[in-house]
Amino acid sequence: SAHLLDLFQVQNEEGPCLECTTTGSPVSDDDLRLDGRWPRFAELARAQGFAAAYALPLRSRDVTVGALNLFAFEPLSPGRLVVGQALADAATLSLLQVDPHVDLQIVIRRIHLAVESRNTIEQAQGMIAQRFGIDQGEALVRLREVSERADLTLVEVATAVVRREPDSPVTPMLTNG
């Protein structure tokens, strides 16, 4: 799925999104079989059924704050990429709330924190799924239930799982179901 590809790029520092975010320029790969820039990413994307990948910059005042990933089953036309960039621009305005006084460094830190939190939750999800022989959806439900019972945020519970904190109040709740 696209979500898996987003996560892969962040965790493995490979893929069109990172290149786009670094350069501030759109990145296109119309045929993932032929382009060798990101071999592991391309292999995973093809395994998910995608044939092409694109990343469009989220920019404000010449500062790139992120990228919009587009994954496709066939190459996108130039017209669709123009529409994609318009959506990326709209997303940027929405993220920054069109406030000229927004400190972009704060926004960037918040985005990085959100990505790190998502990664921690997904890592904990995988650990719980593997430990109990359940699927990812059930693992997330279990993490949320523990979060509510322990009166902790989902990220706090996930962090305790990932760090394998033996003294955490979360540990017995997960062990006992």
Walk me through the structure.
- The protein has 177 residues and is an alpha+beta fold.
- The chain has 2 domains: 97 residues, GAF domain (Beta-Lactamase, 2-Layer Sandwich); 68 residues, Arc Repressor Mutant, subunit A.
- The protein contains 8 helices and 3 strands, in the order H-H-E-H-E-E-H-H-H-H-H.
- A 3-stranded antiparallel β-sheet has the order 1-2-3, with helices on both faces.
- Strand 2 and strand 3 form a beta hairpin.
- 25% of the residues are buried.
N-to-C series of helices and strands: HHEHEEHHHHH
**For the CA atoms, what is the radius of gyration?**
19 Å
CATH top level class name of the largest domain = Alpha Beta
In terms of per-residue confidence, which ranges show pLDDT below 50 for 5 or more consecutive residues? none
Proportion in β-strands: 5-15%
Give a count of the beta strands, DSSP E runs of length 2 or more. 3
Give the strand order of the largest sheet, numbering strands 1, 2, ... along the chain: 1-2-3
Class computed from helices, strands and strand pairing? alpha+beta
**So, the CATH homologous superfamily of the largest domain?**
GAF domain
Domain tally: 2
Helical proportion, percent range: 55-70%
| End-to-end Cα distance | 28 Å
Largest sheet: 3 strands, antiparallel
Q: How is the CATH topology of the largest domain named?
A: Beta-Lactamase
CATH architecture of the largest domain: 2-Layer Sandwich
Number of helices: 8
